[in-house]
Amino acid sequence: MASDSAFLYTVASLLSVVLNVVFWALVVRTALRVANVSVGAQAAEWLNRLTTPVLTPFQRVVPRVGGVDLAPLAAGVAIQMVQRLILV
Questions:
Q1: How much is the pTM?
Q2: Where are the domains of the chain?
């Protein structure tokens, strides 16, 4: 039984790390877009590949407010909530 809980804790910790990477990629992507900063093609492609699958469902549901896309904010909050739930 103890090894089962250790395994589950390891899986939860790994999932938390992955979610943390996605969260910070969202933050960087959003900051770069707001600041209208051009980054290298490879970096932009990497950020888009990592964050687009996460953002797309939120962009379908969360409306733009005054031309501002709030989907990254909603996705970030959702990621933080999932992290809190899995590490309880």
A1: 0.84
A2: 2-86
